[in-house]
């Protein structure tokens, strides 16, 4: 179980647990829709897992109507549980489907996804883990095709991937007419390279705005008569997750 300020994630039946980078995606992605001022914003969470991203979006934007799609049986039932126990249940609809087969009556203003990205890595004997981590069930070309089919012409797609896979996806997206306009790179500390990238895509071609988020920083603390240094969450990370993490 992972408790946030306004909701709780039960995760005993899902392959993908709550992780820091997914929380950053949910807190960072533009889900307010400055171009949408007079109506509900329609948002799609592809591969919702526990329902984490859908719940974060619902907390951030009270005008968001969210469809959360999940193919795995156990994850689907867990998302139903988490959404149903939250204060946002009336604005989130959880559906079980392959996203390639999903045919809604609307197109979405925002699409969020934390997709599987392993390709040639050793596979797990657990089918749910493979589905969550390996691209076999949702290859990048099919993901891009799905986004093009389901997103509004003025919409945005936000996706979380490692740096190498970010570049691969960006090339596929570009060929389909989707262009990155913002990239947030995540690194553990100032001495480490980026390990994840949050990218925002739209149909407007432009040079992406690049940002870096360092999760931990060094903090000097007094230990009796001696000084020592330890890692603590950075001020930028605290500011981003302050509305969600109980420890902030």
Automatic annotation (TrEMBL):
Give the E.C. number(s): 2.1.1.223
- Domain Methyltransferase small, chain residue ranges per copy: 42-125
Protein's GO biological process: methylation; tRNA processing
The record's keywords, sorted A to Z, are: Cytoplasm, Methyltransferase, S-adenosyl-L-methionine, Transferase, tRNA processing
Q: Name one Pfam family in it.
A: MTS
Q: Does the keyword Zinc apply?
A: no
**GO CC, alphabetical:** cytoplasm
Its UniProt entry gives the catalysed reaction(s) as: adenosine(37) in tRNA1(Val) + S-adenosyl-L-methionine = N(6)-methyladenosine(37) in tRNA1(Val) + S-adenosyl-L-homocysteine + H(+)
Sorted alphabetically, which SUPFAM superfamilies does this protein's record hold? Answer: S-adenosyl-L-methionine-dependent methyltransferases (SSF53335)
Q: What class of enzyme is it?
A: transferase
Give the matching CDD domains: AdoMet_MTases (cd02440)
InterPro entries for the chain: SAM-dependent_MTases_sf (IPR029063), Small_mtfrase_dom (IPR007848), tRNA_Adenine-N(6)_MTase (IPR050210), tRNA_adenine-N6_MeTrfase (IPR022882)
Q: Which GO terms describe its molecular function?
A: tRNA (adenine-N6)-methyltransferase activity
Which compartment or compartments is the protein found in?
A: Cytoplasm
Superkingdom, according to UniProt?
Answer: Bacteria
Its job: Specifically methylates the adenine in position 37 of tRNA(1)(Val) (anticodon cmo5UAC).
* PANTHER family to which the protein is assigned, alphabetical: TRNA1(VAL) (ADENINE(37)-N6)-METHYLTRANSFERASE
Q: Which family does it belong to?
A: Belongs to the methyltransferase superfamily. tRNA (adenine-N(6)-)-methyltransferase family.
* Name under which the protein is recorded: tRNA1(Val) (adenine(37)-N6)-methyltransferase
Say which species the protein is native to. Spirosoma linguale (strain ATCC 33905 / DSM 74 / LMG 10896 / Claus 1)
